[in-house]
């Protein structure tokens, strides 16, 4: 993964999961595994009782701890980046900013990279959602600096995904939509890729999105369903913070299982005792149909705008962990039958694209002027 003394990495700092990648000795982008061998790390921070907040737990262990100590856990803080006066958590009277929580995640994944591959991280390129403006970008850079990293620049997530697909998966010129449904946000971006004179040009034609529309809203619908079913079995009750976190974990796991099966059992241990709730994919799709419809409407708007601009869109690239839900591909195929659907490493494409951007110096430096959305690499 590059020269030991000069490794530059790309980082997808996600709402729910984060990922790190670098260019290997053959010039290919490769995701760096964490200490547990996973390709992604939960963007969750747990502050242990009696310890200095800086001595916190991050990743899988923090996600597990969130079930037992939700009030000492920070998660879903990426949408808070750049917002004044907003905190990710308050631990023993100490406010933890979204930047600080993000810094702990960045430090965790880069420390794991150093330890696992015995290589130094000389610089990082961090991705951000398409809708992030200057305050959010500055906050992201600040998080990297707080983690002790040399932040070389920022790249939009759909651009990073387009770069990965355009450079590694196809050598043909063309235009496509990047349908990016992550844990916390949704973006759909029309891009054109042109290969010329040993360079790759990525042009962002137009973009639509909803920074509140992400996989966590699908989780919320499952949570509400589980609460109703639990109350039906056990009687109405107020759910404690412990139970609310247990419900969120159960909902996320159920959603993932429904990508592979038509029905799943959800076993709950909540305030009034154990309960078993059955959830089918059909019910899940019904509960979330309006959320999916919103992504389709935004996709249609982006497609129409791109075509009005003379862009001949041929395909849709699926990016983001939430695109594994079968309902996504089914809805896109139904509504856009003339477009080819492509799924290329949806969980890793953004980080890999960021690594390519870093290697080819295709990055946004804060304050730098750019022509429309063009990036030459």
SSE order: EEEEEEHEEEHEHEHEEEHHEEHHEHEHE
Q: Calculate the mean pLDDT score and round it.
A: 89
Class by SSE composition: alpha+beta
Q: Tell me how many strands there are.
A: 19
Give the proportion of residues in helices.
25-40%
CATH homologous superfamily heading of the largest domain:
ATPase, nucleotide binding domain
Termini Cα gap: 20 Å
Q: Strand portion, in percent?
A: 25-35%
Radius of gyration using CA atoms only: 21 Å
Largest sheet: 6 strands, mixed
Please tell me the CATH architecture of the largest domain by its name.
Answer: 2-Layer Sandwich
CATH topology assignment of the largest domain: Nucleotidyltransferase, domain 5
Q: What features would you highlight for this structure?
A:
377 residues, alpha+beta, Nucleotidyltransferase, domain 5, Actin, Chain A, domain 4, 3 domains, 6-stranded mixed beta sheet, 10 helices, 19 strands
What secondary-structure arrangement, pairings included, does this model have?
Elements: E1 7-12, E2 17-23, E3 29-31, E4 41-42, E5 44-46, E6 57-58, H1 60-68, E7 73-75, E8 89-91, E9 94-96, H2 98-117, E10 121-128, H3 134-146, E11 151-156, H4 157-169, E12 174-181, E13 186-196, E14 199-210, H5 215-234, H6 241-257, E15 263-270, E16 273-280, H7 281-287, H8 289-308, E17 313-319, H9 326-335, E18 340-343, H10 349-359, E19 374-376
Parallel strand pairs: 1-10, 10-11, 12-17, 17-18
Antiparallel strand pairs: 1-2, 2-3, 2-4, 5-6, 5-7, 8-9, 12-13, 13-14, 14-19, 15-16
């Amino acid at each position: 993964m590059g020269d030991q003394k000069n490794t530059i990495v790309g980082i997808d700092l996600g709402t729910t999961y984060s990922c790190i990648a670098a260019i290997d000795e053959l010039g290919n982008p490769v995701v760096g595994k964490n200490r547990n061998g996973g390709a992604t790390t939960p963007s969750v921070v747990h502050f242990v009782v009696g310890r200095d907040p800086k001595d916190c737990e991050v990743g899988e262990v923090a996600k597990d701890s969130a079930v037992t100590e939700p009030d000492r856990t920070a998660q879903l803080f990426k949408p808070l980046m750049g917002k004044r006066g907003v905190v990710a958590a308050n631990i023993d009277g100490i406010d933890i900013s979204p930047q600080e929580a993000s810094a702990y995640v960045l430090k965790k994944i880069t420390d794991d990279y150093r330890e696992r591959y015995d290589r130094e991280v000389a610089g990082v390129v961090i991705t951000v959602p398409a809708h992030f403006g200057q305050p959010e970008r500055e906050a992201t850079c600040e998080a990297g600096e707080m983690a002790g990293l040399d932040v070389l620049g920022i790249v939009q997530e759909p651009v990073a995904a387009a770069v990965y697909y355009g450079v590694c998966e196809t050598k043909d010129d063309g235009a496509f939509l990047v349908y990016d449904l992550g844990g916390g946000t949704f973006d759909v971006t029309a891009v054109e890729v042109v290969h010329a004179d040993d360079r790759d040009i990525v042009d962002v034609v137009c973009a639509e999105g909803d920074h509140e529309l992400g996989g966590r809203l699908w989780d919320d619908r499952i949570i509400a369903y589980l609460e109703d079913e639990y109350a039906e079995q056990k009687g109405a009750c107020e759910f404690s913070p412990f139970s609310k976190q247990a419900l969120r974990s159960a909902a996320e796991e159920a959603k993932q299982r429904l990508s592979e099966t038509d029905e799943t059992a959800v076993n709950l241990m909540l305030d009034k005792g154990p309960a078993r709730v059955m959830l089918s994919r059909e019910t899940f799709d019904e509960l979330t149909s309006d959320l999916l419809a919103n992504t389709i409407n935004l996709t249609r708007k982006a497609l129409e705008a791109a075509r009005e601009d003379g862009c001949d869109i041929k395909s849709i690239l699926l990016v983001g962990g939430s695109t594994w839900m079968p309902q996504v591909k089914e809805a896109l195929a139904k509504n856009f039958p003339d477009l080819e659907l492509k799924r290329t490493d949806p969980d890793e494409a953004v980080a890999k694209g960021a690594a390519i951007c870093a290697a080819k110096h295709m990055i946004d430096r804060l304050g730098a002027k750019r022509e429309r959305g063009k990036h030459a690499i």
